[in-house]
Amino acid sequence: MRQIILDTETTGLETSLGHRIIEIAAVEMVNRRLTNNHFHQYLNPGREIDPGAQQVHGISLEFLQDKPSFRDIVKDFLNYVDGGELVIHNAPFDVGFLNYELGLLGMEPIQHFCPAITDTLKMAKQLRPGQKNNLDALCRNYQIDNSKRTLHGALVDTELLAEVYLAMTRGQESLMIETEPVRANSVARAQRERLKLRVLQAAEEEMAAHSAYLDDLDKLSRGHCVWKLMTQGD
User: Which residues belong to the active site?
Assistant: First the structure.
């Protein structure tokens, strides 16, 4: 299972006002293990950054002047995320901005490339109703060190979100299905182990006690003891 933990920073909050993405970060996780394969890119938005947004992420327009546009990196980005499940905190926000950028280029929405999208904010609200569920609050709750998060940076946030997601879904490791092919010698070894099993026959007194127990069950169920009916033909 390949998952892409993703975050963006933007010039503002509303695509309807023409706000753009200025940073994209994503880290890859395969079978719940980070692979150190990540995507990170600052982008020149071609417009001003709202002062309120800059106070949150600390990214200035001057810093972005020599950075590529979304058009310049879109192929590399889509190649990276293609087919993976996106894991995003407050997914409607980031997905909305990604689809806005893709739409400006006449391209399919992100769901075309990544049909599965998990919103960790929605998950957190279900697990912790009525509580703060921003990334800092979740880090405190799950005892994850977020001391590097002095400002909202997309790459730092994706790394923290990956830890938060693993903490929120702890216990799912047992549900993972092994996808590697089973080797022939493993099958043969398992078959040999089964042949070593010893079958112990019940003693006469054990059989009598079992029969008496079924008789009692049959009386309590007024003749509807399933196990007794099954053994009557033996």
Answer: 152
